[in-house]
Amino acid sequence: MAKNMQLQVIIIGGGPAGVSCAIWLKKLGVRAVLLEASPRLGGLQTWSPYENLWIPGVQGKTGQQVAQHLSDHAAALGVETRTTCPALGVWGDYTVGIPAGSLTAPYLVIATGSKPRAGGFTASARVAIGPGTPMESLDVKGRRIAILGGGDNAFDQARFVAERGGVPVIFSRSAPRAQKLLQEMIRDVKVVTGNYAADPQALTVNGEPFDAFGVLYGFEAVLPPGLEPELENGYVAVNRLGETSLAKVYACGEVTDFWHPCVTTASAHGVQVAKQISKKLAG
Known about the structure:
Elements: E1 9-12, H1 16-27, E2 32-35, H2 63-77, E3 80-82, E4 89-91, E5 95-98, E6 101-104, E7 107-110, E8 114-116, E9 127-129, H3 133-136, E10 144-148, H4 152-163, E11 167-172, H5 180-185, E12 190-193, E13 198-199, E14 204-205, E15 208-209, E16 212-215, E17 219-221, E18 231-232, E19 235-236, E20 249-251, H6 263-282
Parallel strand pairs: 1-2, 1-7, 2-3, 7-20, 9-16, 10-11, 10-16, 11-12
Antiparallel strand pairs: 4-5, 5-6, 8-17, 13-14, 14-15, 18-19
Helix pairs in contact: 1-2, 1-6
C-alpha cells in the first residue's frame, strides 16, 4: 500500500472550500494533499454554466470558469491534488483509503460539500435533480416545466427555463424562500403555493400535465465513509474555528452549513480552517 507519513493534512473534497484550504496550507508551509472524487476541482461550480452573480469580482464568469480558475490557482502554486481519487474509507488517526492504497496524516479536513436532495425522485431524461448541468440537459423550448421547490435555485432555474423558451411553473409547499431580487426577476412566472402531488411517471403535478420536472429541493451534506462526526440538521457541526466533534478533524464549506452556502463563504471557511491547523502544527 502506498503511504506517505510525511503528510500533515489530508483534505477530502476539491470544491471552493477544499481548494482554498489547500492553497492556504501550501502558502503557510504545511504539507497537505487534496483528494477529489471527480475528474475536476471546483465542486458544484463545475455543474454551473451560468454567471455567478453573487461572487464579488468575477463579473461575467460562469460557475465552470470559476471552478477552472480555482484549479489553475492550485496548480500554479504546486498544491498536491489527486483527482478521480475518492476517499473510500477513513480509519484510525487518520488513514484514508484511496484507489491506489492509503494515505495517513495527523489532521483531516472534511470539505466534501453537499449534493442536491432528490426528494424521492430519480433522475431521468425528463426529471432533472439539482441546478446547473442537470437542468440544462432538459429540452425546454416550447415545453411546460414543473419547478419543484421555493428557494433561490428554484427561482433561478425557472428564469433560465424561461430564457431558453420554456414555460416554467413553480410549485412551493410553503411561502417561497427565494430572495426578493430573484422573485422580482420572474414576475410573469406562475407560482403555486401549498401542498402538491407530483407524479414523475405521468409527469403531472396535482393532475396537471408537464413535459419535464426540475427538482430543486436544496442540498444535503456528503460524508466520507467511516467518519461519523456530530451533525446538526444533517450537516457537520463545527465551532467557530471549524473544529468538528472528532479530534484533529476540521470541516469547512457547504458540508457544514455554517454560513450561508455560496462560493465566497465556502472559500473563506477553507481559509479559516487552514489558518487554525497551521497554528496547531506550530504549537
